[in-house]
């Protein structure tokens, strides 16, 4: 499944605002209960071998009747019961026969079966104990179509077509919701073939499931469609869909089907996903050596991708039928911006990657989730990159995934990838976010550079070949990679004593990630390197040792293309003989490894002056991105003096590269917020940032050129968003021009500029501007574009409109349930003065929010998003008192509120402790002149406002 990053409670102290353009939602949060309690787990001496599921679906009544036949292998004797999962409305009857003789197996007369609703079990009681053998269980039952998508299982959603509301029903079974649609062995380790039949109303279009339709029957005024049997899969990968949706077939050969499916009225938005999806499938086929379409075990595997208006997660890799949120699949050339276009390609690559890692080879239990999530996240960037290099996803991997993995690993509470102890729900949600996705993928990339691309690919092929249709374990993967490495003579020669599996395992087992401390003796050339766990708050809960493949280069002989490690650091510290000479060194070339690097002061100073010279670009952009990101973290954790850290960072004043700025912005904003309660320091720092950004703003200009690369487009988006928010006069004036032409003359704003142009229009405008954009939102047809508008609506400064906006977030049925918590976060981000309004709204309505946003987890998300915005002593106290006074009514959200207040307070204390030094640096900087200059710009901004 595709999910998300950023959990504010745990990371509140770490990440500023979530990297805004990252797909942020909180889906794994409710994975909790089922994992910690063994009561939910099944015994493995009853193995399902085949499932036949027959559903009679009444979409408009939100219900269905079902009959399931389950063939099982029993490997134990003297069994009194068979236990499987169910979470249905009613189990009507159970019947068991010996599958060989077809003789009935008598059940206990008084108590033939029972359901345990706590543990979601169906318990079948035999009259007398049965012995090992093959049995067939038949269950007749009633089920419901959940009306709230967040309830998952088989659920309904809606859309509007020609003004009328239409319903559809689809499934989301991961991680344990298949039992809501049929009784089953609902754990990933139980794999079998499934044959699905669905009966539906005549006036709908043919249903979809994992496989193609094999047979259609008319039954009265209803239609029954039976699908081909699936290959051997886990229950969570089963899917079906009942609706009047329409599809577009994109393929030249019948043996390689490929379809995009959506609600009616959106077929014009299918083409891009198909174009890129076909290429990604081909690329993965070639790379992994197993053909997607041939995985069906006797039946051609189809390749459908369905856009859903309502979807609780980002996307889900059901075999043969991937579900997506509409915004992540449908592309409109007029309306879908570059960021969302990249998402479409990369999310598709992620889900397709799962077909091999997750579907074909499945991990034994959720603690090994990293095995398939990491691979999916790896291919998310790289397979999409192969399909369309112009998207630059290979490089974006570093600033998106490597940086966010390092950010979450900087928390003292970071959990290891192979987590198996759960302390509480929060650690679960943290685990299933950044750790399994970004970190796992970053570790795989490091292993790829270490082993070499060919060996790495061969290892993956061995792993898939040896474990296909079965369960895979980390050991299976280590074995496969070891085998591939051992077959490469050069590798074995260069790394004679290195155990490849052990290198990988050190990253899997250790919590957090290391910082490498590098001390260079330029006279002797001797480099001392020491590894240590990096924790942003300074205190390390533990200090394990990683096996770190090391790459480095130096000013005497720069080489940023050779990413092959020279050695593996497997002890806490070592010395390396480098070339003597007055040359800086850089470790972690192109940030190919998952670690930060801190140098001795002299090396930093030399790097700083090189970066400020015109030769800056000789240092790889991804190393420049790493340097700014590392430095900002070291400034936060007091691992470097402000003067030295900011002294090096000063090179941003001439930097124009997307990647470097992407490595800096979130952290710069974090620091700026920490000064918010100290106006003098806050203003000085804001002006400093504006002065740093002048060069990049001038370089980019306000208008897009036809020749702009992807990263130039993304850079303009990120830089102008930030600049307009900081009050940059030119950005504001240009945005207002565009906004007014849009509003007054119906001149569309170029899609990639909309986010900050709309926001500025609303921020500088009044209620009329808000109503104008709200009208556009309500009549929007492209979801990604609607989300852009939803975000901008919250930029209004009219606080009656912000209250209106928050009301809409609960009641407007154009705002999908998965966008409601986003709307909340946007309301906080829109303007600093929105905070009191949002807080009051929360104080007065939290119970209703809990219901309308979809439950306690959603309310917790809302509460968490206060962390970054509660920056003043008064507000923190006010919020904290409210939380304490209302702890009973807040229920489980009380503790979230409490820790939000504590994190906010810790953040504020950081500001108190560090503001003087930062202020002093800004004052002594020769740049006093630039600070004055940008104040003049600000003044100009207010003039523009007055003259408008
Ligand atoms: C990865 O493996 C786990 C365990 O088998 C499975 O349940 C999960 O759904 C797979 N894919 C995911 C989480 O995307
Ligand atoms: C479910 O099973 C557990 C464990 O056997 C038991 O404690 C509980 O009472 C059962 N609940 C129901 C509703 O039968
Ligand atoms: C960098 O190293 C690689 C691999 O050793 C080599 O092929 C390449 O020519 C080097 N590049 C430079 C600029 O020295
Ligand atoms: C505004 O422009 C759009 C397309 O650019 C067009 O569809 C729409 O009808 C125009 N509206 C008005 C009021 O002219
Ligand atoms: C908003 O401002 C415009 C002028 O910019 C004015 O015409 C309009 O009446 C104002 N609307 C409201 C609701 O104040």
TrEMBL record:
Tell me which residues make up the Peptidase M1 membrane alanine aminopeptidase domain: 272-507
Please indicate which superkingdom the organism of origin belongs to: Eukaryota
Q: Kind of enzyme, top EC level?
A: hydrolase
Q: Which CDD domains does UniProt cross-reference here?
A: M1_APN-Q_like
Return the protein name.
Aminopeptidase
Enzyme Commission identifier(s): 3.4.11.-
Q: Which residues are in the ERAP1-like C-terminal domain? A: 584-886
Query: Which InterPro entries does the UniProt record give?
Result: Aminopeptidase_N-like_N (IPR045357), Aminopeptidase_N-like_N_sf (IPR042097), ERAP1-like_C_dom (IPR024571), M1_APN-typ (IPR034016), Peptidase_M1 (IPR001930), Peptidase_M1_aminopeptidases (IPR050344), Peptidase_M1_dom (IPR014782), Peptidase_M4/M1_CTD_sf (IPR027268)
Give the bilayer topology: Lipid-anchor; GPI-anchor
Q: Which UniProt keywords apply?
A: Aminopeptidase, Cell membrane, Glycoprotein, GPI-anchor, Hydrolase, Lipoprotein, Membrane, Metal-binding, Metalloprotease, Protease, Signal, Zinc
